[in-house]
Amino acid sequence: MKTAFIKDSFKRLYKTANRFIAIMLITAIGVAFFTGLRSTAPSMEKTLDEYYQDHSFMDLKVVSTTGFSDADRARVEELSSVEVAELSKSFDAIVRLDDKSSTVRLVSYDLNGVNELNQFELVNGKLPESQNEVLVDQVFFESNGLSLGDELVFASGSEVDIGYFLKDSSYRVVGTVYGPEFLMTERGSSFLGSGQLAGYFYLAEDSFLIPYSNMEIKIADTEGLSVFSSEYEELVGEAKASVEEELLLSHAEGSFFILDHKMDMDFVSYKGDGERIAALGLVIPILFFMIAIMVTMTSMTRLVDTDRGLIGTYKALGYGNYRIAGYYLFYAVVSSGVGGVLGVILGYSIFPKLIIGAYRSLYEFSEVKVMVEAQLVVMALLLAVSFAALPSFVIALRRMRRNPAILMRPVVPTKGKKILIERIGPVWKRINFSHKVMLRNIFCYKKRLFMTILGVAGCTALIFAGFALRDSIKGIIDLQYGVLQKYDVSVDFAEVEGQDTLAAIYGLGGERFLEAHKDNLKLVVDGEETGVSLLAFGDDSYGDFFTFRDRGSGDLLPLPDNGVLLTEKVVRDNGLVVGDTIVLKDQAGQLFEVKLGGVAENYLNHFVYVSDEAYVDLFGEEPVVNSVFVQLAPGEDEAGFIAGVLSLEGVSGVVSNSNSEDSLSSTVKTLDFVILVLILSAVALVFVVLFSLTSINIEERKRELATLKVLGFNRFEMISYIFKEIFILTLIGAVLGLLVGLFIQRYIISTMETSMMMFSREISWLSYVYSLLLTVFFAGVVNLSMFRSVTSIDMVSSLKSIE
Amino acid sequence: MSFIEVRDLKKTYHIGEVEVKALDGVTFKIEKGEFVIIVGASGAGKTTLLNVLGGMDTCDSGEIIVDGKEVHQLKPKGITDYRRHDIGFVFQFYNLIPNLSALENVELATQICEDTFEPEEMLYEVGLEKRMKNFPSQLSGGEQQRVSIARALAKNSKLLLCDEPTGALDFETGRNILELLQKMNKEKRVTTILITHNQVIEEIGDRIIRMKNGKVASIKINDNQRSARELNW
Fold first, then answer.
1. Are A26 and A696 in contact (CB under 8 A)?
2. Is A709–B95 a contact, with Cβ atoms under 8 angstroms apart?
3. Which residues does residue B144 pair with via DSSP β-bridges, in sequence order?
4. β partners of residue A134
5. Pick from B127, B107, B224, B115: which is nearest to B173 by CA?
């Protein structure tokens, strides 16, 4: 075999190890982002599917105001499209703890029988053995600092006594669970109390005094189907129809509602999140791939050019073009191949867990499952390698087609050209000579210039996107609690004897108060319902507690005369416009039409704001005060105040803004980590790109630099000859990167907002400064490390070789 | 004291285990304004000698004194200054900056020195008044070499060193270049050292130093200095 050639090939590869590693690294980064981001959405789907499967999650849920009997259940289970049907009881109640009162959902659990569907996962403690024991959901347990053995007391939150619903009012916590029915840690809305469900609890079925209100159904033939698939949807549709037909035989129309996944807000928002991440996975990797390809092609081209003489020699010896070019093909394939494999490993191990993990603060999973699709891996590797290998091979072949003699002779000097500015005589004359040289250099190596700018811009863009994201998320907290809702505590209480309750609250403390009427309603748009809290105010004093303003202009919005204000997110998500007539539904199911008079800036939860007069027009009755917002005196004991309020009889809900603020801050911390990864990738990117491009630049101009050295240029002059241009290009790239970063951030925000939360669009000027500084710093470090290679050029060897 | 004194100059290259004695005790003197030809076969050590004289390489031992300056003692900064102010170099392969015009290439050299000649004037002198704005790729080999010479001369340095300046050129053009060098040497009285392996060229020199195996084989003062025009090789 041609062993000499092979020996030489490996030696050459070893000598150019730096280049090899650079190509490997940049390919790894590109592929990591590509596979990582693209596998996240499928991983989300897989995680949910397996979670549902492991817990035998239901496919349909039927809710009835008239209740179900076991006979009903049996009949439904007989249907061919139904596999299992179960009954359960549930209702919403209030639980009082030391520092707050929360609205929770109580769900029945069959102590003796087998609960086949909606199996929860026991995290701590044990299953209830007697009727006075309760299981608490893990999130509620943790965030309220409960312990096993605590006694919880439930209240009805209305005029009706809890004893109407439950045998006892007090239960002991014996264990904690994760339950599949409540996916989101935002538990959704309730008609009761504060309007926000804070947790769910499992109690023995026998504790409930109400009839079965729910039927959970698992439909047949769904083995192996993803809940996101269309086949599944079809089966659900069919089953739904046959269940409805069956139930109509025993229940009046309108007395029951069949819910499937599409109506489950948790599922819908999860699906939406997955789709949005998939969108992200389309765009960002392209940026990386582009840069990776750019750098690889430049490096390989340079490699071929460096070997000019050697190639000529091989040709002269009679080696064929394809064999000689084969070395470069091999080089490119191996470096990008190894890099690609590395990238796949990195991508799959970092991204899905990271992104889903960030979402975990919003969703409840015990474990994230990563979906590895062979298809994606193969595609990524093929793309990476072919984009590196094929151009290299083609370029090498092309360069080789000249005859050996030409290859072995010195290179024809690159064509010098007049640049545009030169033509403007008076301007050109004024320019200092060294600047003239710099401008010439910039314009004569246009391709290199373009790539340097692109590489730097990409880096700045990522860093900036990271910082800007952080600002947006932090901004929510600052804006929501600092500007839009300026109160410490809100208290909801029963309308009956409301004035007495109010007087009692005033007696407990607090500095300023705002009285209001509150209703927990649902906004209905095209069949989809969203929980909203309606607040009605009597006079303008609400201005000290609430700021209703248009986000774009900052103009304050007055409460409209014959309409309502709605908060921004719910308006945007439903495509509403000022002037539209919207439909609100109350607990009893009654519908009310009202005009949308304005859109208020808001970041958490959804609100409807209305004046007392407009309320009367809308609902046909006077609003009764059942809610008060409290501003405490500076230094006042909030916990003590809340404890006192909770002890009052009529009080049904207490929310502390500072508690909400805290839980939001922990979400911010999770996302901080995502941002750190972004910034680190950006740094890796700029390092590899600048290092590759600059070292190629220097290598190509070795002769030029050696000549300068002979002419007597000192270190500083040599460095500025090369690096002045690079510095200017870096600045241009960085500024450009800010622009690109802005786009990326906007895009990410719009894709990552959850159904409850809107991200602030304000970006601090510091973020701009930090991004620029960091980029320039890292670019500077790379360049600095290359100074030596410029100043230590050996004149003798650089100038004596003929190429 | 002669203008240039070289005493027992030694330089050895270590390539792996092999030792190459490029300069094995070189000694000679050169007077101011002389046109010196150093001639010898390939590997004789002429290029190494020129490189060391020009501050592009260091010697292992020996002395080089140029106009009283002890070049062998110079530290890196001093060497850079030496190259900057005291030396003009003409290469075999011109080494012009490709994206600077002929004029700019000369300016590049004069920008960093004081008391230089006008770049435009130098280009006139070498006969390139019409080609000043052209780029190297637009010039012929001979024209490029002229630019290189103009660049070296414009510096108004003490010493002009030429490394096989006609090596890449055809006979006619090469002869013209040698004529030019001779003319500049006479008019500007800049001490010129030219190395070549072509013995025919040695006739145009004032002093001819022959090198062999890293040593000076002979030094001849040329009484019959010929004009380059008369050469034929």
1. no
2. no
3. none
4. A173, A203
5. B127
Residues 449-488, chain A: which have Cβ within 8 Å of B? none
The C-alpha atoms of residue B227 and residue A468 are separated, in whole angstroms, by: 76
Chain A residues near residue B151 by CB distance under 8 angstroms? 711
CA-to-CA distance for A24 and A31, rounded, in angstroms? 10
Give per-residue pLDDT as tens, A712-754: 888 888 888 888 888 888 889 889 988 888 887 787 777 666 5
Q: Inspect the interface and report whether the beta carbons of B98 and A414 lie closer than 8 Å.
A: yes
Question: Is the per-residue pLDDT at A146 higher than 80?
Answer: yes
CB contact under 8 A, B84 and A713: yes
pLDDT tens per residue across span A238-297: 999 999 999 989 888 778 888 887 766 667 667 776 776 777 677 777 777 777 777 788
Helices A446-479 and A265-306 pack at an angle, to 10 degrees, of 160
Task: With beta carbons under 8 A apart, name residues in chain B contacting A444.
Answer: 98-99
Using one digit for the tens of pLDDT, what is the confidence trace for B205-225? 999 999 998 999 999 998 888
pLDDT tens per residue, range A165-191: 888 889 999 999 887 776 655 555 566
Tens digit of pLDDT at every position of chain B (233 positions)? 889 999 999 999 888 888 888 999 999 999 999 999 999 887 788 889 998 999 888 899 999 999 999 999 998 889 989 999 999 999 888 888 887 889 989 988 888 888 888 999 999 988 899 999 898 888 998 899 999 999 999 998 889 999 988 888 888 888 888 999 999 899 988 999 999 988 888 889 999 999 998 999 999 998 888 888 888 77
Going by C-alpha positions, the residue among A250, A239, A220, A215 that lies closest to residue A85 is A215
CA-based nearest residue to A500, from A632, A626, A644, A653: A626
Q: Are strands B159-163 and B191-196 parallel, antiparallel or unpaired?
A: parallel
Please answer whether residues A447 and A721 qualify as being in contact, where contact means their C-beta atoms are separated by less than 8 angstroms. no
User: What DSSP assignment string belongs to chain B?
Assistant: --SEEEEEEEEEEEETTEEEEEEEEEEEEE-TT-EEEEEE-TTSSHHHHHHHHTTSS--SEEEEEETTEEGGG--HHHHHHIIIIIEEEE-TT----TTS-HHHHHHHHHTTSSSPPPHHHHHHHTT-GGGTT--GGGS-HHHHHHHHHHHHHHT--SEEEEESTTTTS-HHHHHHHHHHHHHHHHHH--EEEEEES-GGGGGG-SEEEEEETTEEEEEEE-SSPPPGGG---
Q: Which of A390-399, A592-601, A629-638 has the lowest mean pLDDT?
A: A390-399
d(CA A692, CA A296): 9
With CA atoms as reference, report the closest residue to A520 among A614, A620, A626: A626
Q: Do A444 and B99 touch (CB under 8 A)?
A: yes
- What A276-280 contacts at long range (C-beta under 8 Å, 24+ apart), as own/partner pairs, is A276/A750, A276/A751, A276/A752, A277/A37, A277/A40, A277/A41, A277/A44, A277/A355, A277/A751, A277/A752, A278/A38, A278/A40, A278/A41, A279/A751, A280/A37, A280/A747, A280/A748, A280/A751
What pLDDT was estimated at residue A160? 78
pLDDT band at A803 (very low <50, low <70, confident <90, very high): very low
Give the gyration radius of chain A's Cα atoms: 34
φ, ψ at B67 (rounded to 5°):
50, 45
CB B54 within 8 A of CB B61: no
Q: How far lies A227's CA from each of A182, A755, B161, in Å?
A: 16, 20, 83
Q: How far is B83 from chain A (nearest CA, A)?
A: 5
> How many residues in chain A?
803
Minimum-distance CB partner of A413 among B101, B113, B136? B136
Nearest-angstrom CA–CA distance, A707 and A120: 77
CB pairs under 8 A between A and B: 87
